[in-house]
Amino acid sequence: MLDAANRIATLARVHDQLYLDPGARDLSLRDYVAGLAADLAQALNVRVSTHDRLDEGHRVSPGQAAAIGQILAELIGNAAKHGHPGHHPSMELTLEQQGRQLRLSLVDDGPGQPEGFDPDHSSGLGMQICLIYARQMDGRLDHGAGPEGGARFDVTLRLDDGIAA
């Protein structure tokens, strides 16, 4: 049930940001991701540190914002769900941009991924959502161990050409 609530809240954030500025056709990527990460951290009782190396003023379409938001909500939600029992997980979210490529990296301090974990063969709806959105945006999802043993997910996406930075 919490997963469904997070998915709805992610779409609501896109709607709210567009509603605040009815003339807007796009959203600030930096503001959107920072706000979403803060909302998810509070809702899930986790810590998410956000670092970005984005071009100043980069904007994305509502559709891309929703896709990016769903990916982040799933990855942050999974880290919270699969962390150490009784421990409030900490995560580090890094966003980097090179031209029209966006790279999102999420590293957590949990127990890491199970032996043989493969997102392409995961039965979980959340991981399938991440893969679908990544592929729709000509991207990919990579995974592995974080530097201190937790899980690491790297999502690379192609941003729309029509929105100026």
Automatic annotation (TrEMBL):
GO MF term (any one): kinase activity
Keywords assigned by UniProt, alphabetized: Kinase, Transferase
Histidine kinase domain mapped to chain residues: 1-161
Pfam families for this protein: HATPase_c, HisKA_2
Gene3D superfamilies, alphabetized: Histidine kinase-like ATPase, C-terminal domain (3.30.565.10)
Superkingdom field: Bacteria
InterPro entries, per the entry: HATPase_C_sf, HATPase_dom, His_kinase_dom, Sig_transdc_His_kin_sub2_dim/P
The protein's name: Sensor histidine kinase
